[in-house]
């Protein structure tokens, strides 16, 4: 590679270097925000669950996203927030067109972070879409995927279901509720087929269930720009992984699936 301009471009694209003016402050802001959203600073205790019976804060569990925080605004952990940042910054550097969306937002922490990345990069022409029922998981209906019925996630709706007003209030607390944040309240099967965005650059799914994951992929993946990212938070769950495999096989998708932290996974859409 003899052209120094080409060499500089590769270094910038691959490593994000040299930093843009103000970049150090932006990264300090985003790194601090990740700590606040996961609450590794004030160390709130977890809510005991079937897979984590701990009652005291455990930093390893929190950083890895393995507990249900009692007060933190996200449960995805630090590595998965790092992944969100990496994917958004890559599509911004590569000028991949489209908005950002998360389907299944709980207290809104990950979408708050998405909006923060856009703010740090001073991006004003992209929207963060916040899609959730805001009442928890749907009860299985006759004909539902058998694994969805077996999981019984709806029985945790007192904790999982976070009202829309609460999520909006959380955005406001960070100073990030504005015209670049839009909400899609309702069951995915009702809201996603007519979702009004034209293109997406980052599609993040935190849907837990086979049918919810399939609904999101079916209705939103066609809007994902080439070079955009699909992030599957619950890839470690067989029922969610099955939906991903079935969708990819049905549409002949062979882009490499990459691990995030042993629990989540992602891939980049090819040309």
Automatic annotation (TrEMBL):
The biological processes this protein is annotated with in GO are: methylation
Q: Which residues form the signal peptide?
A: none
Q: Which organism is it from?
A: Nonomuraea mesophila
Gene3D superfamilies named among the record's database cross-references: Vaccinia Virus protein VP39 (3.40.50.150)
Q: What are the protein's UniProt keywords?
A: Methyltransferase, Transferase
Q: What is this protein called?
A: Macrocin O-methyltransferase
Q: What is the lineage of its organism?
A: Bacteria, Bacillati, Actinomycetota, Actinomycetes, Streptosporangiales
What InterPro entries does the record tag this protein with?
Answer: SAM-dependent_MTases_sf, TylF_MeTrfase
Q: Is the keyword Transferase in the record?
A: yes
């Amino acid at each position: 590679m003899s052209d120094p301009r080409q060499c500089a471009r590769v270094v910038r694209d691959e490593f994000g270097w040299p930093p843009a003016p103000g970049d150090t402050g932006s990264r300090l802001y985003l790194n601090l925000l990740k700590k606040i959203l996961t609450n590794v600073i004030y160390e709130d205790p977890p809510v005991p669950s079937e897979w984590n019976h701990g009652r005291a804060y455990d930093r390893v569990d929190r950083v890895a996203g393995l507990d249900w925080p009692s007060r933190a605004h996200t449960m995805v952990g630090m590595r998965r927030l790092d992944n969100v940042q990496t994917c958004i910054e890559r599509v911004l550097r590569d000028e991949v067109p489209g908005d950002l969306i998360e389907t299944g937002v709980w207290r809104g922490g990950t979408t708050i972070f998405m909006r923060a990345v856009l703010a740090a990069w001073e991006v004003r022409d992209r929207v963060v879409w916040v899609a959730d029922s805001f009442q928890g998981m749907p009860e299985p209906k006759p004909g539902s995927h058998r694994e969805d019925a077996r999981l019984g996630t709806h029985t945790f709706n007192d904790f999982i279901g976070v009202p829309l007003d609460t999520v909006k209030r959380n955005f406001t607390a960070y100073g990030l509720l504005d015209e670049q944040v839009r909400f899609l309240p309702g069951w995915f099967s009702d809201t996603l087929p007519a979702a009004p965005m034209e293109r997406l650059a980052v599609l993040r799914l935190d849907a837990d269930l086979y049918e919810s994951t399939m609904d999101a992929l079916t209705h939103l993946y066609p809007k994902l720009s080439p070079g955009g990212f699909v992030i599957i938070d619950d890839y470690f769950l067989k029922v969610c992984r099955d939906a991903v495999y079935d969708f990819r096989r049905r549409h002949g998708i062979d882009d490499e699936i990459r691990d995030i932290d042993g629990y989540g996974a992602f891939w980049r859409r090819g040309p």
